[in-house]
Inverse folding.
């Protein structure tokens, strides 16, 4: 690798793979708003910055990164291997640990509400439940990220 020369900010702004990842995140998050409108007949812009849901923006970003690195550096490069490992870890976490945490939050919320209704003196605080993803949401996010990388960088 060559040492960084010139303005680091300009280098970042000219980094095509960085912008592929930004676009993958943006499209995935915008899709959540559109899908909420289509399925629930309500416009909820909070979904643009929210976690969880269809498609997984985490999966879209890390897959766009891996495919972008593969296109630019070669699919047999060390950088591609690193990006792939990062993608697998991120997607496994999104569909595993974070999804389980969301299910636990839903159960805790139900228990707290039941206790409050039965006269319990508990804070009426609701935990965030939409944290993780189903395997389908992860898969769709990954496909979206790959398509965006190919469209923006070519093969």
């Amino acid at each position: 690798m060559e040492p960084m020369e010139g303005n680091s900010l300009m280098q970042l702004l000219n980094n095509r793979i960085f912008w592929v990842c930004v676009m993958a995140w943006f499209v995935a998050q915008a899709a959540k708003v559109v899908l909420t409108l289509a399925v629930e007949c309500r416009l909820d812009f909070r979904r643009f910055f929210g976690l969880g849901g269809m498609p997984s923006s985490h999966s879209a970003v890390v897959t766009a990164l891996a495919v972008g690195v593969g296109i630019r550096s070669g699919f047999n490069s060390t950088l591609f291997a690193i990006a792939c490992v990062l993608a697998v870890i991120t997607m496994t976490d999104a569909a595993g640990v974070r999804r389980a945490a969301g299910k636990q939050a839903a159960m805790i919320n139900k228990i707290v509400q039941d206790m409050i209704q039965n006269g319990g003196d508990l804070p009426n605080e609701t935990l965030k439940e939409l944290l993780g993803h189903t395997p389908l949401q992860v898969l769709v996010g990954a496909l979206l990220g790959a398509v965006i990388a190919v469209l923006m960088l070519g093969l």
Remarks:
- The radius of gyration is 19 Å.
